[in-house]
Amino acid sequence: MPSVHTMPNIPAIDGLRAVAVLSVIIFHADFLKLPGGFTGVDMFFVISGYVISQSLYTRSDMSFSAYLADFYRRRFLRIVPALLVVLVACALVSAMFVPQAWLSAQNDQTGLAAYFGLSNFTLAWNTDTYFSPSAQLNPYTHTWTLAVEEQFYLVFPLVYFVWLRFRQRHSLAWALLPLLALASLAFSVVQTEQSPLEAFYLLPSRFWELASGAVLFQLLVTGRLQLTSAATPAVLFAGLALVSGGLIFADTKHFPFPWAALTVAGTLLTLAAVVQKTNTPSSLLRLLQSTPATYVGRLSYSLYLWHWPVLVFLRWTIGLEQLAIQLAYPVIVAALAGASYHWVETPLRTGRSLFQRRAWITIASCLAALGLSWSGARWMSENPEVLSLSQTSDTYTWFSRKLPQGLASEPISDPSLQGRQLFVFGDSHAAAYRTLLSLVSRQLGISVVEYERGGCAVVSLMAPDPQGACTRARNEALRDIEARAKPGDIVFLASLRMPELAGRDWVRGDESVLSEALAELSPEQVDGARRSAEATLKRLMNAEVRVLIDAPMPLFKAPAYRCSDWFNRMNPICAPGFTVERDQIERLRAPQMALLKHLTLEYPLLRVWDPLPLLCPGSTCSAYDDGQPLFRDGDHLSGYGNRLLAPSFIQVLLNGWRRAT
Known about the structure:
- This protein has helices spanning 11-28, 40-57, 64-97, 104-114, 119-126, 133-136, 144-166, 171-194, 196-201, 207-221, 232-249, 259-274, 283-288, 291-298, 300-316, 323-350, 354-357, 359-382, 384-387, 395-398, 428-431, 434-444, 469-484, 510-519, 523-542, 582-602, 612-615, 639-660, and strands at residues 421-426, 447-452, 490-494, 546-550, 579-581, 606-609, 620-622, 624-625, 628-629.
- The chain is mainly alpha-helical and 661 residues long.
- The longest helix is centred in the N-terminal third of the chain and has 34 residues, at 64-97.
- It is elongated.
């Protein structure tokens, strides 16, 4: 193999990495404020483009196959070992401490995709935004940046090899990377407006950031861009000023364009300045080259890997509000990152064993380790109850996913049930009835067809039903019901129908919060709710089916599954408690009940099933019944709650079908 010449190490680049990683950590920590700290990721992208280009430039005399093999050997050694340790640790801790709930499937999908550099696709297609609760409580969210870089590495070495080989003979070799970067930037401009989530997470709208660092290196190493010694301090100051502007002012609603351009431009200027040789470094350059800054920069990969899951697991369990936890957080992250860097990253990256020197052995071994780790993580995600330390590992009691093993009652034989179908249509609250629906199907011997889409309420009674993708899903379900239903079949509409109580500021007092919740049900919202309900009901009545709607059920101020164990009871999210006065519930649902009364008078085939008396028989509603959870969170039924309601629901169905015969 041809010899590899080296280029001088530039300590200030590690200092820049330190700025980038600390900015991201400070942004993510709820108890510190740096509004645009997330732009530290954009700094990483530019720095990575520059450093990778520098590394490949030193291999310019290799054959194409040796060049590629050596590149991927080094990338695997750099990325895979520490990443695998973090991903396996996250899977294990999740199984042990995080209750299986509404986020679990998405978290597991993200984590499993992260093994193969695909987690950014999972996040782009399954979250609201990078800043949404679903992303904030996912221990794998931060792996999207690694996925972007890994996908960049599939394309960039080929483009760069063209430049290495043909830059002195063909101008196109110089133009190829800048043209791709400009195309990516133009795409980013459009995507930020049309599909902001994909613009944020996916490579096509981020390619220009990594490519810009590579282009800078090309210009500097060939002498096409030069800075004088006199100009260098001013360029460094200007670059850091632009970076600081991004860290302070970047707008999450317009990202990556235009705000990422500010950080990218600043990072490019800063890089151009710090790589210049100088005998009299400025104070800013001395700071970036200082021992603490460069050490943090060398730890930056491990710091980035560990900072986010530690934050998420603390948030999930004991919470981040206490000062002691806030002080302990950076210590925990620093300890894990230091151990990762010194005991995992460095030995595996710099060793001289056959495993580290032979590309095919390195790549094959890393792929095997990825496959084995992925299999283990998948098993843990599918069998969390085996490792769980939480009471919620009793999924039969806590969650409606766990179906009954046997029938609690004898099957019911009734002529009115012959050939009947039950269609269930709604949001995640329809899915929360799965145990009940299983009992219905098995005890009555009828067909149950479910149409569920989280966040897409049907006849919410509070506001117009959600539009966009929800409209399409709603129309598809209605068309399917119209095609399959026979006269007399029942359509059960199940959705959230009362303002959520969890997550509100109950410190202000019950009366203040309840008044605020009621104020959300403005006359315009209620009128919109009525029109949406009538539009859906008219279609169903035309199909000659009977319609059953569940009345608003009790809601609670805190999620029971988040506060069921010794390691999470102290979390401030649990402080509001698990009881609500029944008169408060009646007050909150009064507008919806009034609308239901109006609709039942207008549509004779509409019936209302009200579970409130069963779930709240006294003056105080509780999320627990004799120590058993009625609800798994603030508003979704538990498996136990399903079994409590099943006899009442079955009787309502029987009454409806007996009247129809």
